[in-house]
Amino acid sequence: MYRTHTCGELTGKSVGKNVILCGWVQRSRDLGGMTFIDLRDRYGITQLVFNMETNATLCKQARKLGREFVIQAEGTVAERSNKNLKIPTGKIEIIVNRIEILNASEIPPFTIENETDGGDELRMKYRYLDLRRNIVKEALELRHKMTQEVRNYLSSKKFIEVETPMLIKSTPEGARDFLVPSRLNAGQFYALPQSPQTFKQLLMIACYDRYFQIVKCFRDEDFRADRQPEFTQIDCEMAFVEQEDVLNAFEGLVKDLLLKIKGVEFDGPFPRLSYNEAVEKYGNDKPDIRFGMIIRELSDLVKGKGFNVFDSVEYIGGICAEGCAEYSRKQMDALTDFVKKPQIGAKGLVYVKYNTDGTCKSSVDKFYSEVELKKWAALLEAKPGDLLLVLAGDKNETLNALGELRLEIRNILNLISKEIYAPLWILDFPLLEWDEETKRYYAKHHPFTSPKSEDIDLLDKDPVAVRANAYDMVINGIEVGGGSIRIHDRQLQQKMFNILGFTQEEAEKQFGFLMNAFRYGAPPHGGIAFGFDRLVALFAGHDSIRDVIAFPKNNSGRDVMIDTPATISDGHLKELSLQVVHQKK
Ligand code: ASP
Predict the structure, then answer these.
(1) How far is the CA of 313 from the centre of ligand 1 (A)?
(2) Tens digit of pLDDT for each residue in 308-319?
(3) pTM for the predicted model, two decimal places
(4) Is residue 394 part of a domain?
(5) For residue 124, is it within any domain?
């Protein structure tokens, strides 16, 4: 028997017991005639003691153990005089009478503790060592618990988990496909699924009216923080449902997870906002509603007073930063620099300091009297001591910039707690987006999303005005899931492909299987997919999904541990009938 107990389970109740533990040497300390070793395994840390007086040979042996040596230690559980109440095993220690080195270790490239000296890249290169750290272990354990709970909950609601293939044909989720060359069909390729979208729809047509799958998806996207080329979805679909049924079913899932995993009870239904409302109030379609600071339009109030910057633009809007009227020149400059960053894109920042003495001081005093500035303050619900921040420009761009500024102020003022969960649904997304560059429409969600029945007439007249039966679930400013009611009518699907610029032939080639299936009794259906990594990161309180993935890729899509993507041999290329063309950068 290698071990009788783990390093995380012995407590005061076991005093006097003879035990055998196995684990890694986290650290060792020599104090006078005693040597202490912290022995670590997946479950915790237990202190081992060696006494020079009672067993000099063993103590000397212990002193030679380096960090991360794997050892087996046998001894008696004893009560500790110097108790560590921070850990469950802190009341006891093991008086060791035998050790065996199961494997030596080189000195690890970084310290394996929560506060480590290892940088990101180094920890990723040695991810198996990083995974020994408590903080990472906790994230993986949480992930496992959430996986189990999702399976339990959905199974209890009659969903069945069905696996769908990984080697498929392109599914249009708006990213590039990862391709896999076929050896047996020279010149032909599989695509890795961007999601199981078409398969889950086929399962509905087949009769499996409640499906889910915890599934890997692959999207070849340009670098963006918090994206991984491969990620996990909780993918779901239901038949014989309307939007309301889907929202209820999955609100139930998230409430269950919040309760079972975080102990947070959520009363009543999740709030709902239309896409337009979300953008107008929060500047984007994934609002963080843990705090207010709502965006308000000032155009009517500020135009026509001789200030050319405001008179010449489409939209002027503002937010109120509570208690910030005393901001210094330096702090104001930092906010101006923030909104002028290329990714925010504002040209400048207008401010009004609504001083505690009730006076107003603004960057546009030349054009607006104090009476006028107070009207702005009233509209933005500011009180003395607050700071009004105003941006102007193209409507969508300005709303977006105000949304970013709102989040920046949230961070500066530390307005939120990670322990609060503020979920909501965003509804009524536009079905289509017009792209000026390629001069064509794109599906905002994907081509299988159905238009709202009352908007179908607009498909020909004013396509961008058509609203979709689509919904996103957002928690704390993070889009955790999204889905839609699907088109299940062949003609309408054909029409949608036409609008999206597919010729009949192209649509047939790419989605003929689905269009054919629509001939054989496709029920009304709809579904959703949750970004599981994001959901876990949110529950774990981590900002990056990389922290909750066992073996993640770095920001340029590389796995630096296994060093891939990598070149392949000429023989391998030949077998796949491939030739690599090196392009000059
Ligand atoms: N397939 C969609 C996605 O991955 C989700 C859905 O519509 O169910 O975003």
Answers:
(1) 37
(2) 999 999 999 999
(3) 0.94
(4) yes
(5) no
